[in-house]
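>> received
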Amino acid sequence: MANAMNIAGILGGVAVVAALAAGGTVYLLRQPSTNVAPANVAPAVSAPVPSPPPGPSAAAFSAPPPAATAPDAGSAQAPPAYSVEFVSLVQPFSVLRDSAAYVAASPDAPQMYPLRAGAALMSTEKSKDGKWVVALTEDGQAAYLPVADLGPYNPAMTVQSELPASVSGTAMVLDTGTLQVGDQKLPLGGVKGVTGEYADVLQKFINANGGQVSCALHGQAYLCTLPTGLDIARATLYNGGADVTDDASEDYRQQAATAKAARRGIWQ
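>> returned
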């Protein structure tokens, strides 16, 4: 759960000062560590290579073409101009389900980082259409959150699980959608894993690239990359080693569609 703290000196707003005078508590969003990649944005990888022939062999796994890179939300000094009007609202909320903070009041805007269910935050403004609230991160940056994912502040709420924010080390493939690093089981976001020969192929592919992975938590699943920056889930989908889940990103869906069209892996 995000830390609760007095931020009257940070905000300086009349509404917040009044709230604190009345005995209120103001919450700031905890800025995730900088090594956590933005949600649904796959790291850039090396240049594409020719599509491999179908079949579950070690040579069948290759790097997919790079994904289009979204703008770096962290470097933006001001959000894009979206035509949404806001009014002052100093009110605490709890995050009801895994969500995200955006750089502007639009689901099409770049995401700043994911938000875990159970986190607490204090809004400073609310859109007139009632769909968005503005909160501040610990470094004072504005973050826009969809009201549909928020509820009244509930101090009894806790984060759904105690999954570590990041894990790195030697990976063992349990299935093509699940890795194990040490004693931590890591589900790959957006992937329906399969066992057997395709899991063996993925293990050989990881081993051939150093065997080490770096994984960052997004919601209740992980984005895991090789030392080269290659997204393991994305490569698995591109090579037909798995299918996508219902909540997979559009990029992941495209990789699975490419494998299906080429009749690679499970699509043979």
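>> Residues 94 and 120 are 5 Å apart (CA to CA).
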